Amino acid sequence: MASIRTALGDFMDSQARVRALTGKPVLRQLREIRRFRKEAILCGATDYYRFGIYDPDYVPRANWPTYLGWRDQRGLSLALNPRRVSLPGWDKLCFYALARNLDIPLPTIRACFQPGTRATASWMGCVLGDVAALRRFLLEDATWPLFVKPSWGGEGIRTLRLEGLDRAAGRLILHGGRTMEIETFLHWCTAPSDRWHYRAEQGLLFQEVLAPDPQMATLFRLHAVPSLRIVSLVGAAGEVVIHRVVAKIPLGDNVIDNFALGRTGNMAVLVDIASGRFGHGLRGILPTGEVERAIGGAPSPFLGAAVPHWEAALDIVARGATAFPLMRIQHWDIALTDRGPVALELNDLGGTEILQIHGIGLLTAPLREHVRRYGDPAVRSWVAALRA
């Protein structure tokens, strides 16, 4: 009941906000929502407000049919990526093992904690098979700082930046000056979760901390590493089409670039694929979010600026397609670092909302044709309708 009240309150707040912005009375908004639902796939009132459909200058009417609603973010990837080939899009250790064979640049793994493992591959760093080994690594062998993330996980779950160790106090020093008792951290590393996209059994990676590209650090006033979410469509002959690119910009004191519909305070910036230049950014979700073209205090606007290492980033995605040819849609996260682009991960069920908040939806002509050619009609009725 509480969630229903919250959703109703958000809906009424959005109505009021749009009326203040555009002058559209509530009845007119409801009529537009009804028309939008008929033209877009699985879209409703939330999508109408979140994607800025109410503003014809932001979203031209011709773009309405390109949107895919939030109710089925998984369906697109489920239809295009058979489950039997999607493991590298979930398990980072599996992804790293395959990507290394293509000389794709990756973060260095300092240690891998996976209870019960007997792995010996040198690229996995110190292989820690139990809690005692992990404790010993932290107390004796770790080189600081370290970035900790799950091998199997997403949305920033169980990610930390460790800056060092206060040996006398028996506490780890976290980013921002906070501390955590070592025993608390060890429990945190092994505690299960009810989140479906995190599996503690797959273990944690302890990686080097990457530094941002200097141009990006200046343009966006960064201290953490930004990344490009590059969505590519892979054909039967291995051909790769770059379909959508959004830069994820960590702002403030954030150490990860997760956007989380604006809840983190980070920014999502559209990238023009043809030119490799930044478009406008969004900090937060419409209708309350702010459209940004520059960062306060930066020497110049980011709008129109060239993305550093653009061609090299696209080359990583093109080479990666040869390792995962049966994943027909691939969501790559490529970090823009001071040593060039570095592949962070390949996502299978990449979120669709961050890719549709800049004035156009995902289901433009190239992706529709791709779904018609490769989509499994048994997965979703809307996929079957597109193929028909």
Topology overview:
Elements: H1 2-22, H2 26-39, H3 45-50, H4 75-80, H5 92-100, E1 109-113, E2 126-128, H6 131-141, E3 146-150, E4 160-166, E5 171-174, E6 179-181, H7 182-190, E7 204-207, H8 214-220, E8 227-234, E9 240-249, E10 267-272, E11 277-283, E12 290-292, H9 310-323, E13 329-337, E14 340-347, H10 365-374, H11 381-387
Parallel strand pairs: 1-2
Antiparallel strand pairs: 1-7, 3-4, 3-7, 4-5, 5-6, 8-9, 8-13, 9-10, 10-11, 11-12, 13-14
Report on the architecture of this protein.
The chain starts with a helix and ends with a helix. The longest helix is centred in the N-terminal third of the chain and has 21 residues, at 2-22. The protein is 29% helix and 21% strand. The protein has 388 residues and is of the alpha+beta class. The mean pLDDT is 93. It has eleven helices and 14 strands.
Structural class: alpha+beta
Mean pLDDT: 93
Work out the strand percent.
15-25%
The helix tally amounts to: 11
CATH homology superfamily of the largest domain: ATP-grasp fold, B domain
Question: What distinguishing features does this structure have?
Answer:
single chain; seven-stranded mixed beta sheet; 29% helix; 388 residues; 21% strand; alpha+beta; D-amino Acid Aminotransferase, Chain A, domain 1
